[in-house]
């Protein structure tokens, strides 16, 4: 991310569409765009750039940069191998449609620089749209995000967080470009119920982990500080109605096993006595 910040200080932002039959002076931009197309994350960021920056590219917005366009540019600068940066920095030479679009998109330069700075680890939370766009711009993070979409449909509906959904969240959390997703802010511009999803995720997927962590932190350092009063509620809570039923079943099973073993011992003892009597009778008959 620091490379993007340093590189952008002398960048002139550009946008171009490759058209068959263009002149040779656009080959550098054409090569940069083809390089971006070869990476699914960069391709996603480039598609979002042309979609959300359309008004800027056409010249409809000259004074300010729309938020959607700013986020799209930040995502494009976040792609792996600097493929997006190479596209933004490609050489248009002089004149033509490419240079004209470069000048129009330059209105976003200062705001994009500010947005790049908020992606640092120590920066404040960013909007969820921006956090998602940055993740989508990285091929590995995009794949993890798609895996999350595929396995968390019940979470989106507010039903439950399945084991596969929790696993997909673990995979997503290990992606460097997904670091802002967990703490992102909902601003109401999302195409889904952002607030409900965040609440469901925290409650259904992370609640148990937080509870265990809080319980561990509440344990005193010394075992001598544990009083009988603190033990009693724990023991009462431990023996629930379900636990009592299990204990009764255990007692019945143990009693049945004990009776079975006793019956087997009695049977063996009777067989032994019967064998001894037969032996005594046979010996007395011979004598």
TrEMBL record:
Residues 236-255 have a biased composition (Basic residues). Residues 216-287 are annotated as: Disordered. This is Growth arrest-specific protein 1-like. The gene is 106072959. GO terms for cellular component: plasma membrane. Keywords: Cell membrane, Glycoprotein, Membrane, Signal. InterPro entries: GAS1, GDNF/GAS1. It comes from Biomphalaria glabrata. Residues 128-201 form the GDNF/GAS1 domain. Residues 1-23 form the signal peptide. It holds the Pfam family GDNF. It is found in: Cell membrane. Residues 225-235 have a biased composition (Basic and acidic residues).
């Amino acid at each position: 991310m620091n490379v993007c910040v340093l590189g952008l200080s002398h960048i002139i932002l550009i946008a171009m569409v490759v058209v068959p039959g263009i002149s040779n002076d656009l080959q550098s931009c054409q090569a940069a765009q083809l390089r971006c197309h070869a990476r699914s994350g960069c391709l996603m960021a480039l598609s979002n750039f042309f979609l959300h920056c359309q008004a800027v590219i056409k010249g409809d917005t000259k004074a300010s940069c729309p938020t959607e366009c700013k986020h799209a540019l930040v995502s494009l600068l976040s792609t792996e191998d600097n493929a997006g940066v190479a596209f933004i920095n490609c050489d248009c030479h002089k004149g033509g449609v490419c240079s004209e679009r470069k000048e129009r998109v330059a209105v976003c330069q200062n705001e994009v620089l500010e947005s790049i700075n908020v992606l640092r680890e120590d920066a404040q939370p960013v909007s969820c749209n921006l956090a998602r766009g940055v993740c989508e711009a990285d091929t590995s993070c995009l794949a993890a995000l798609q895996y999350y979409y595929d396995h968390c449909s019940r979470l989106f509906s507010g039903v439950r967080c399945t084991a596969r959904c929790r696993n997909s969240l673990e995979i997503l959390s290990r992606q460097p470009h997904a670091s802002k997703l967990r703490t992102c802010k909902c601003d109401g511009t999302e195409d889904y119920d952002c607030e409900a999803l965040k609440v469901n995720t925290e409650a259904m997927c992370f609640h148990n982990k937080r509870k265990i962590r809080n319980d561990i932190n509440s344990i005193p350092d010394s075992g001598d500080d544990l009083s009988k009063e603190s033990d009693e509620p724990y023991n009462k809570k431990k023996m629930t109605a379900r636990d009592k039923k299990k204990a009764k079943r255990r007692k019945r099973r143990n009693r049945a096993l004990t009776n079975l073993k006793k019956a087997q011992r009695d049977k063996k003892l009777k067989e032994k006595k019967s064998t001894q009597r037969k032996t005594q009778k046979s010996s007395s008959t011979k004598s």
